[in-house]
């Protein structure tokens, strides 16, 4: 069984690491947060004091950090970075959701040292990280995918190789565009219905079985109608992802009008102090426009 | 069994009327298009030469015409209008998709003559009209709903009473907002992915099972990827519906930013000569922006 180094023990990384331990993998773990390291060590991992120590003897290194700058800092930058301590032939899997161009940059730098790289962002959030049922969207070299598949399937319910390095995060961005716009449109529709005097719960029941039906509607309409915005997936994180969409689209010279509108709405919610609410709180933009709550 | 007058034998009305005939209802039918009248008469209806003749002896009158002005023309305006020929106690069911405010106007005018009115727009399009599996979104008086339920269920697979007169069309508008925005976001996401070098089919497979999954994605992603824009539901009709959203929102003094963006995209497609294509052709807006086709 591969020896795994795991860097980044936040809300997602911590349960992912624990599932690997439960599955019998030998884990070395590192995070700036010592409490998180101690917690995962208590579950059976070896606590490390540096990235260098985490890399030592690891066949596979998994990173799970907030965004592109943190991935670059951990993997590429500074004396303690992965690139300076992982042996040739090591496989690095970055499960963070970051900009695809950053993934490519990391992959190219690692390739120059014969280190294999996959970007493998997830969807599913904390509950599926705990259950080990995340969905991995994976970009990287097909000839090495079989080597990481079993590891991913300990943490996830599915792992789909979609293309070269960067493709995983491109797929994640596509996912986040659709989710944000669908939530925003659902909010606009339900609020308009209520403003016109129709019970939003009845609207939900009448349309959920038709072409308007979606996983977003099933998950988020009850939250909107119940005014329950406990995350789930936070506005702050969705802003991060759509900022990565905007950056990617700009680099490709492609206008993304729906993303821009959704991102503006999400940023308005941040400015209103709602950044830590579930993204279903996008309904608040329409509620404010209509001067009512669902 | 109720005697039914059916006015409006277009793409939707014709199969709806035929399903009522098959179910054993005695039907009188009328349309400006004599060929359509002859076709439905051949299936067993009595052909009428006027609205007045269609109303004579009918317990229930069903209208299925393009938009608000046509409903008002048929039901309220002129010597031959329904309001001048339907007996007190008659039930009028308007299955057209129109502005909720127009439904209310029609309902109030009919109520003054003791004629009962329901707005009952449908979703499902021609295939479900033929199969008798339309979804009816119904607004009108609860105490009379039971009298029309069996009739609706001949033409439909579901019929949900959502509120007072106008509520059916408000619900339909909510449905159309969500569908349009979800299609547009799907197009933007898949085109961005392809622009970034990822196979849109693989993106679809990787994300369909997650939070981005929807009935729209299942129905429209393959059409977009296959560049097959055979309707289905035409751009022209979606423009009509979102114009009704815009009109309704303006009357309620509520901004609807996502609807506005989707409507602008749909109108751009009309200007490009794509009005008769399926609404999945919304992807063309993103394709134009990215200078590629899926």
The CATH architecture of the largest domain in chain A comes to 3-Layer(aba) Sandwich
Strand order in space, largest sheet of chain A = 3-2-1-4-5-6
Secondary-structure content class of chain A:
alpha/beta
Instruction: Sketch the major β-sheet of chain A.
Output: 6 strands, parallel
Shape of chain A: elongated
Radius of gyration of chain A from CA coordinates: 20 Å
Give the percentage of residues in beta strands of chain A: 5-15%
Indicate how many domains the architecture of chain A comprises: 2
CATH class (first level) name of the largest domain in chain A: Alpha Beta
What is the count of helical runs of chain A?
13
State the largest interface: A-B, 69 and 68 residues
**Which percent range fits the helix content of chain A?**
40-55%
Distance between the termini of chain A: 52 Å
Quaternary form: homodimer
What's the total number of strands of chain A? Answer: 9
What is the succession of H and E elements of chain A? EHEHEHEHEHEEHEHEHHHHHH
Mean residue pLDDT of chain A: 97
Supply the CATH superfamily name of the largest domain in chain A: NAD(P)-binding Rossmann-like Domain
Question: Could you explain the architecture of this structure?
Answer:
The structure is a homodimer of 294-residue chains. Chain A has two domains: 3-162, 3-Layer(aba) Sandwich (Rossmann fold), CATH 3.40.50; 170-290, N-(1-d-carboxylethyl)-l-norvaline Dehydrogenase, domain 2 (Orthogonal Bundle). Chain A is built from 13 helices and nine strands. Chain A has helices at 13-22, 34-42, 51-55, 68-75, 100-111, 125-131, 142-155, 167-195, 200-207, 215-225, 235-251, 257-271, 283-290, and strands at residues 3-7, 26-30, 46-47, 60-63, 91-94, 116-119, 122-123, 134-139, 156-163. In chain A, α8 crosses α10 and α8 packs across α11 (235-251). In chain A, 57% of the residues are buried. The model of chain A has no long low-confidence stretch (mean pLDDT 97).
